[in-house]
Each structure stands twice: as structure tokens, then as C-alpha cells.
Amino acid sequence: MSPSINSADNATSPNVEYTNEFIRTQAVYRGTEATKDESGSVIATPYEKKYEFKINRKVPRVGVMLVGLGGNNGTTVTAGIIANRLGLTWQTREGEQSANYYGSIVMGSTIKLGVDPKTGEDVNIPFHDILPMVHPNDLVVGGWDISSMNLGDAADRAAVLEPGLKNQIRKELSAIKPLPSIYYPDFIAANQGARADNILEGSKASRTHLDKIRQDIRDFKSSHNLDTVLVLWTANTERYADIISGVNETADEILQSISDGHSEIAPSTIFAVASILENAPFINGSPQNTFVPGVVDLATRHKAYIAGDDFKSGQTKMKAALVEFLVNAGIRVKSIASYNHLGNNDGYNLSAPAQFRSKEISKSNVVDDMVAANTVLYKPGEHPDHCVVIKYLPAVGDNKRALDEYYADIFLGGHQTISLFNVCEDSLLASPLILDLVILAEILTRISWRETDSSSSISDYQGFHSVLSLLSYMLKAPMTPPGVPVVNALGKQRTALTNFFRLVIGLEPESEVALQQRLP
Fold first, then answer.
1. Is there a catalytic annotation at residue 9?
2. DSSP labels for 6-68?
3. Which of 105, 279, 293, 490 could form a disulfide with 321 if both were Cys (CB 3.0 to 4.6 A apart)?
4. What is the pLDDT of residues 171-202, one digit of tens each?
């Protein structure tokens, strides 16, 4: 290993080998196992493991296919890429605005590398400089929608973009027309039927639909000369699919059920299966249970990557941060009341009870791990009362109103009430998350690892688990591998993400102990 070689444009690390094709790093991961003995005492045992990581340096030509391309999120993220690529500015009532990637953790935040020994100050670099990542300006966007409207007209319908921006990119947007998509009326609200004029033939899940989506992915990859394609669902929220033995519990069952046209196979599941079979990472950005056990089994079998569920952009992100803070501060949150009203098509679809139930589940479980971690404040199985309300109000459009009340027990029988009013410009918050999910999922396909513990033989390099739980920061109901606990606490999710990339370039996970500043 070279003693000191740049692992990225702005980061230097020992234990790194920098070749024309790969970056190879050595890293030590230190953790602690905690177990209870027969007397109930907790025994904490530190351990360490040595790893080698290999990162493919070449940034591929990447395409992203959005399911729901003509919706609010699809038109907004596509417009954002075009505006940034062209370096556009436009006038609003608040003055001149310019294209940016605010709201993206990859493009708009930094990672701490260490502390300057001379000044004692932190040294930070942009997140996207830690390793060679695809730039969002270089993404090629396409996809499917049940509406045939071109993206220029769809952007008018969405009413998200400022006119001064929209008029400058109308030509580029209007040239993009979604591919026909899958429409099973039983899975989305009946009020979406009026938009469904661009659908594949057939009324049930079928091998024909699966094969057509797979062909669309291959054609998109070929026609745009792409190295990699990722697929992301940002279409309507579906109702939950029933988990049925013999239908969707294993990989073989899910494939057979699709061939049989079983009525309990959702459109999103067809897209997920097609992506897995085409080795295209699939990300679910809505709260339905796309990843039934059979889909996870199929992804594991094919060593394909999946991640979900539901974008975490506004109210839930605030909740994940605030409840983590309160519980860690020793304040016992007793109840949470969350109310939303919004007027975009997402709100229209969620006005149907079955689709609202999918969203309610994803928004309600977000505090469970934080509560379970504090056995001083909460007994086993105890949790705050939690109510979630979503109402459709056309007048507010994409400017979702989120009102929250947190009611907590404090010292000596006292109470604290925190009320928040949060105006979330829904699609403008979600679109940067789409970019983060795509960029990070793509680079994870270029990182492989092997354990180098001297007590065991060196294993071959391998990829990560098919369920990319590392992307949890962007997701409201983050998926984890079977049997692995879910982490919703926002601070833990971001720390896991940034420390992972530090580890991959050969640095120790960052600690805020700053011991050198606290000892005489």
C-alpha cells in the first residue's frame, strides 16, 4: 500500500492504493458487542475487524428511469437537472434566482475529514468529493407514466416551477414523453382514472407486462449508450398488497404469480421484479409494500440492489430529528399529533382510504426505534400516542401544510408542548432526495469489500446486501435486510452514511469526543 495517496480530489488518506482503474483501501472497523448474562448484568465487549475496499474509479454514464415521470416529482427533478446543466437564472418577485442543488445531501453538504492540528479547526470537504460520483447534471432521465402528457405540459399541470424557469426549458421538457406504464385500478385511487391514457394492455399482472418493462429498460440503456440504469418509483401511492402464502412469499412464487396474472401483484412490484432481472437497482419512493418477501428473496438471489420506502422530505424528517433530540435529552414524549393538508396529485390520490393507510403506516412508525432505545423513559412495548391526518385541499397545490404537536412529560409532573407549522414545498424537497438516492445507489454498485482478518483466509471481494439500508436517511420507512432492526433516528442515519464513506477511503469513523481538546 502507498503511504499517502489521494483517495479523492480533495482527501488524503494512508492505507490507500490509487491505480488507474481502482481505489483500494484498508480499514479497521471497531464495534462493541453487548450481551446479558444469567444475572441480568450487561457485558460489553469491544472488537475490531479489518476490511479491504475496492472502488471502481470510472464514473459510468448513468440513466435513471422514473416510474411516474410525468408527475410532480418527475417533472421537477427533470427540470432541475436541465436548469443546472444549462446554468440558468430567472426572475421572481424575490429577485433573480439561479439553478442549484440545495436539499441534496450529496451536492449540498460536507463530510468532516479531521481536525487541523495547528488551528484545532475541523477540516470538511464537499460530500460529492469524497469519492468519484456521478454528477446529477450528467444523468439521462426517462421513464413511464400512465398519463401521455409530455413533460412541458405536465410541468404546467404540476404548477411547481416558477414561470421564468419553466419558459426557458419548455422546449427540452416538451421533447420528453413518458413510455406507457402499468395501470391496475385496484391499487391506486379511483380518481386517478382520468389521467390513465398511456397504459400497457392487460388488466392483471402478467408476464407480458414484466417482459415489456424489461425491454424498455434495455432499450433505454442501448439508445442512450448508458453503462448503468437505475429505476425509481415516484408514482402514485398504492394500497398495501396482501402477503399470501404461495403467492408472494418467495422468489419462485412471485415469478409464478406474475405469470398467472394474480390479482395481488402490484404495479410497483412488477417494476421491481423487472429491474432486478435486468440488474438495474430499484428504489421505491412511495409507502406501499412493493418489496413483499418474494421480491426481497429474488433480489438476494440475483445479487441485485433495492431500497425503499417513501421519500423523507418534510414533516417526517422534522419528526425524526425532533423526537431523537427530545428522547436523548431525557424528555418523555407522550403524544404526537401530525396533521397535513395538500393539494397536489399525491394528496388527491391519498384522499382514498386504502392509499392513505399506506402513508399512515410509513409516517407513524418513524419514532419506534428512538423510543425503544430509552428504557428509562419507556417500559417495553410502551410508546407515545401517535395520530396522523392527511387531507386533500386543492387550493394549496404543492405547498403542503404540516402541523405537529408534541406533548411531553418533564420534571416533577410538568409538561412541555411543542407546536410546529411547516410549509413543505413537496416536490422541491423530494426531488433532491431522488438525486441523492440515485447517486449513492450507483456508487454502491462500484464498491466491493473483503474481510482481511489474519485469523481467517482472505475472502473474495463481494458486494453489499441487496437491501441498501445505508440509504435510510432519504427514506421515511427505510427497508433493512430481514432480521435487521430499523433505524429512523435522523442523526444516526446521517452519521452512518458519512462514517461509511470515511471507512471506505481508509479513515476511522468520526467521533465528536475530540479528546485532544479536552485533556490538559
1. no
2. EEETTEEESSEEE-SSEEEEEEEEEEEEEEE-TTS-EEEEEEEEEEEEEEE-PPPPEEEEEET
3. 490
4. 999 999 999 999 999 888 788 888 899 999 87
